[in-house]
Amino acid sequence: MDVILAGHNIDFDIIREIAAEHPERRDLTPETVAAAYARISRNPRPVNELRTLARGEVEKARASNRNIVFDMGHSSIAEHAVFNLDVLKVSRLLVEEIEKFRLASYTEKSQRYVLFKDDFVIPAEVRKAGLEEAFTATVQMQNRFYQGLYERLRPYIFAQNPDLAADPANRLLLEGWAKEDARYIIPLATETQLGMTVNARNLELMIRRLAAAPLIEAHEYSRRLFDATKGVAPSLVRYTEPTAYDLETTNDLRAQAARIIANMQATLPGDTPESDKGVADRTASGAGKTDLCVRLLDATPEADERVAAALLHSASNLPLARCREIAERMDHEEKEALIKTALRRMKGYDAAPRELEHVGLTFELTISATAFAQVKRHRMATLTVQDYDPALGVTIPPAVLAIGMEKPFREICARTEDTWEKIRRAAPEAAAYILTNAHRRRAAMGVNARELYHLARVRADRHAQWDIRETAMQMVAEGRQVMPLTLLLAAGKDGFDALYTRVFAGEI
User: Fold this and answer.
1) What is the mean pLDDT of residues 85-109?
2) Angle 338-343-349 (CA atoms, 0-180°, nearest 5)?
C-alpha cells in the first residue's frame, strides 16, 4: 500500500510569487491534478506518474479535461480542483444566497463575537428606486439603537452571571452574549465577510445560479467570482451563463401558485387547515398563543420499526423486505433492545448510526433571521424557504425584555417596516435588505434522524445561541413523540452523558 500526498492548500500570494519568479511555469494550476485523476480509469500507469505527465503537458491536460468533463459529461473530475476564496463587503442577505450551495465550505464573520460598526450595503435596486436616503436613514437608526442596546445589555449580562464575571478570562464570553442579543436589531443589509472553499464543479454552478438570482448584488458577486477564478482552471469552468431554467422557473411557479391558491383558498374552511396543524405545535418563547415557531408536519410512519429493520439488514444477509417483516413482528422491548445495542457504545462526539438515515421528519419553522443564519448551515438537511415577512412578527431576546427595552425595540421594528413597505412597492426583490435579524420567515426543513442527532449535538447544547437552541430542543422533543427509540440519545453535547445514564440505567 502507498498513500502519497498529491497536493494541499497554499496561499495564492505564494503562488503569485512563484509565478513572478518563474514566468515559464504553466503548471501552477489544479487542472493538472484533475487531468491526472481523470486518466486513472483508462491508463495503467501509477497515478503519481500521471500527475507528473500532466504537469509537463499543461495544455494537453486542459484539452483532456474539456473532453472528459464537458464532451463526455464526467463532471465529477472538476471536483478535484479546489479554490479558497476571500469574500468581503457583502450583505448578510447575499450570504444566505451564497450558502445555499451545500457542497462548499464557509466560515463567516460572526455577529455573535464581533461588534459591528456602521457598515452596510446599499442595494442597487434601492438606489434606482430613489429610496437611498430613506434606506440609509433607517439603517443608521437601527445601528444607533444596536450600539446603545449593547451598552445596556453588557452590564446586565455581567450582573446576571456573577460567577463567570468574577474571572477576567470570561469577559469576551459575556460580551459576546450581549452582542448576540443586540444584533437582533441590525439589518440584513449589514456588511460582512466570509472564507469559502469550493471545488470547480460547484464553483461553476454557483456562478451560473447566482447570475440568475433576483438580487443585483448576487449578479455582481457572480461576475466577481468568475473573474477571480477564470484564469486558474479554464478547462474546468465553462458554463457560467444563467439558463432559462435558472432565470424563469421561480417566477413561473410564483405566478401559478398564486392562481391555484386564489382558486382553492375560498373552498378551505378556517384559517388553518387540518393538514397544516402538524403532529405537534410549539409556541415561541414570549410569543402569542398562536405564534408557532416549530411544527412537525410529518414523519416516517412506524419509524422505530423501520430503523430496527435497517439495523437487521446491515447486520445480516437478508433482503430488506424480509428484515421489515421481521421488525414488524418484534415487540417494543425487542426493538428497544436492538436499537440500544446500536447506541450503547456511543459517546457525545460520535455520529449516530447511518441506518437512522432511513427515517425522516419534515418541520415547518417560523424563525428569526438570526436563527435561520444557523439553521442554513445544516447542509445535509433539505431546506426551502419563503421570503422574510413582517406579518410573522419579530423575535425579541429575553434579555432585551428584562432590561425594559421591548417598547423601543418594537418601535425601531415598526419604523423599519414602514421603510420595507416603501421598498417593497418600488423594488420588491430588495425589500428584505432593510429587515432586521429579529424579523421572521417560514422554512420547510426535512431531516433524517441521523441529521437531527447532529443538529441536537451542536444546537441544543448550552453553548449554542439561545434562539437556535430553543428551536433545536423543540424539534427533538417533537421528533421523540413519533420515534422515541430512534431518538433515545438525541441531545446537546453538554446533556449527552446525563441522558445516556438515564437511558442505560441499570444496564452498564
Assistant:
1) 95
2) 170
Distance of alpha carbon 430 from alpha carbon 215, whole angstroms:
7
Q: Are 139 and 120 in contact (CB under 8 A)?
A: yes
**How far lies 448's CA from each of 219, 288, 358, 453, in Å?**
34, 30, 7, 9
Q: Hey, what's the cell of 271? A: 384559517
Q: Which of 145, 198, 167 is nearest to 405 (CA)?
A: 145
Report which residue type is found at 46.
P
Question: pLDDT (tens digit, 9 = 90+) per residue, 198-256?
Answer: 999 999 999 999 999 999 999 999 999 999 999 898 889 989 999 999 999 999 999 99
> H or E element: which one contains 18?
helix 12-21
| pLDDT, average across residues 120-148 | 97
**Does residue 426 belong to any structural domain of this protein?**
no
pTM of the model: 0.91
| 202 within 8 A of 173, measured Cβ to Cβ | no
Cβ burial, residue 273 (10 Å; 0-12/13-18/19+):
exposed
Q: What CATH number does the domain containing 475 carry?
A: 3.30.70.3180
Distance between CA 433 and CA 55 in Å, rounded?
47
End-to-end CA distance of the chain: 40
User: Beta partners for 443?
Assistant: 365, 385
Which cell numbers in the block locate residue 16? Answer: 503569485
What's the CATH number where 152 sits? Answer: 3.30.1360.170
Q: With H, G, I as helix, E, B as strand and everything else as coil, classify residue 21.
A: helix
69-78 residue pLDDT tens:
888 888 888 8
Q: Tell me, yes or no, whether 215 lies in a domain.
A: yes
How many beta carbons lie within 10 A of that of residue 58, not counting itself? Answer: 18
SS percent in the chain: helix, strand, coil, step 5: 55, 10, 30
Sign, CA torsion 262/268/272/277: negative
Locate cell 444477509: which residue? 317
Average pLDDT over residues 177-196: 95
**Residues 93/190, Cβ–Cβ less than 8 Å:** no
**Structural contact between residues 179 and 112, judged by C-beta atoms closer than 8 angstroms:** yes
Q: Own/partner pairs for 430-433, CB < 8 Å, 24+ apart?
A: 430/123, 430/125, 430/126, 430/215, 430/216, 432/93, 432/188, 432/387, 432/388, 433/91, 433/93, 433/121, 433/123, 433/126, 433/135, 433/187, 433/188, 433/189
Q: Do 57 and 131 fall into the same domain?
A: no
Strand locations in 369-439, DSSP E?
Answer: 382-385
The residues, any chain, with a CB within 8 Å of residue 7's CB and separated by 6 or more, are: 30, 33
Range of the domain at 192: 84-116+126-229
Distance in angstroms (rounded) separating the CA atoms of residues 343 and 225: 44
Name 177's Cβ contacts closer than 8 Å, sequence gap at least 6.
Answer: 153, 157, 399
pLDDT 10s digits, 278-292: 444 444 443 333 355
- Alpha-carbon distance of 481 to 303, in angstroms, equals 11
CB atoms within 10 A of CB 326: 15
